[in-house]
Amino acid sequence: MPGSIQVEGDYTDEKKTAMAEHEHSEKIEVFDDENTRRMEKRIVRKLDMTLMPVVWVLYFFNYMDRNNIAQAKLDSFEKDLGLVGNQFNVAISILNVGYVLMQLPSNMLLTRVRPSIYLPACAMLWSAVSACTAAANNYGQLIAIRFILGIVEAPFFPGAYYILSAWYTRKELALRIAALYSALILATAFSGLIAAGVFAGLDNTRNLAGWQWLYIIEGSASFLAAATAMFILPDFPESNSGSGKWLFSAEEKQLSVERIARDRTSSSSEDEGIKHGLRLAVMDYRTWVFSLMLCSNHSAYSFNNFFPSMLKGFNLGSQTVTLVLTAPPYLVATVIALGIALSSDRRKERGLHIAIPIVFAVIGFIITASTLDKAGRYFASFLYVGGLYGSNSVIYAWASSSLNQTPAKRACATAIVNIMSQIGNIYAPYFFRPQDAPRYVLAVILMTVFSAMSIAMVLFMKIDLRRENKGLLAQEEETGVKANLFTT
């Protein structure tokens, strides 16, 4: 993306110099010294007040800009652009094609550039592209815009996911990823509320339809947020650039590097660069198990882009009422996701915190497919929205902490997992065939099947990591070197 990425020639050298200085400096005893523990808490508090709010706001707009099409479908969007048959489904799917193509190259590049410049620059680009949707006049133009939107949006979530894992330890990560993921859920909730207001108040103002105003307003707000983020977002712990220069003292930066190095699993190896990290990620079968787990999960929540249309089929009221009623399930899901992540971090357990919520999602899908009762189907939406979104952030945290043997491997592995998960978003929109509206029974059955597949992968991984931990403990007894175990 010419013009959108700032790559400083000496940035890699700067990181190497900082690491070399760190290696020759006095080692900090993180867990033995009370002053160091207080410093660690101060570091986390500073991150929670800077890094987390910035990535949260940008991710909120990332998903808001992406999800506008679901609300636009209830306005005159399809009629104005002349969409027929499954062309709306194609428009949803094509974004994820661009999203898949860009993710891995972006995360490999991210280890070489400044995140504080790169991620906000990508956000400004996607804001502009999303706003351009308002200028689309036909199906071809819409497809082109959606494909480009996928490319420029792709770097953000895996990039944010990676930078969080570069600053936060495993015991801290699930809650932060859940907090980040709450931006997605709330964006989905508030997109319906915002669309209801825009459609009711601005439709046909200055000869623009309500859906066009929706894209313009949200794209403009997203651009301003991205421009502000450049001044607040920190770079990597070992970097001497970005807000980290004034946010952290030299001792705090040293401790930030040390605590992440200590947090890696006992199978850690030396970081030999991004190519070696890519090879480690590709050769690790757990990368592909987590990929299938998340792909199944994303396939199961493919209802997201059709949720307003599904609710419209409940005949709960007018267009405005329907859009407003899309919000409550997602608001409840936000609370569920944060609660599950907090419990997962405190109990240091991942598998059951993923599998049990998905079981509730399965129950919700079964209710949806088996009844015509409006109240019952609306209640079921709380089960499958809360269950799937509640489990998703814990999957990301589990994958990151289990594939973190080197920073380069973590960057490549998390990108691969994200890429494979997006494949589900490419084919899943076709579950919702136009002739199946408004019940979409086939789609509901398929989402149930993919939920079950996700549960199976979770149980496999839990058993596999427990077996690995037994081996590490046996090695500890032989060598006397304390093992850093996988979280199961």
Short description:
The chain is an all-alpha fold.
Write the layout of secondary structure elements.
Layout: H1 11-24, H2 34-49, H3 51-72, H4 77-81, H5 87-110, H6 115-131, H7 139-153, H8 156-167, H9 170-202, H10 210-229, H11 244-247, H12 250-263, H13 274-283, H14 285-300, H15 307-312, H16 319-325, H17 327-347, H18 351-370, H19 374-402, H20 407-427, H21 441-479
Helix pairs in contact: 3-6, 3-8, 3-9, 3-10, 5-7, 5-20, 6-7, 6-8, 6-10, 8-20, 9-10, 9-16, 9-17, 9-19, 13-20, 14-19, 14-20, 14-21, 17-19, 18-19, 18-21, 19-20
Beta-strand content estimate: under 5%
Number of helices: 21
Characterize the biggest β-sheet: none
**Unreliable stretches covering 5 or more consecutive residues:** 1-31
* CATH superfamily membership: MFS general substrate transporter like domains
CATH domain topology: Growth Hormone, Chain: A
Tag the structure with descriptive keywords:
transport; globular; disordered N terminus; MFS_trans_sf; membrane; mainly alpha; 488 residues; transmembrane helix; Growth Hormone, Chain: A; 21 helices
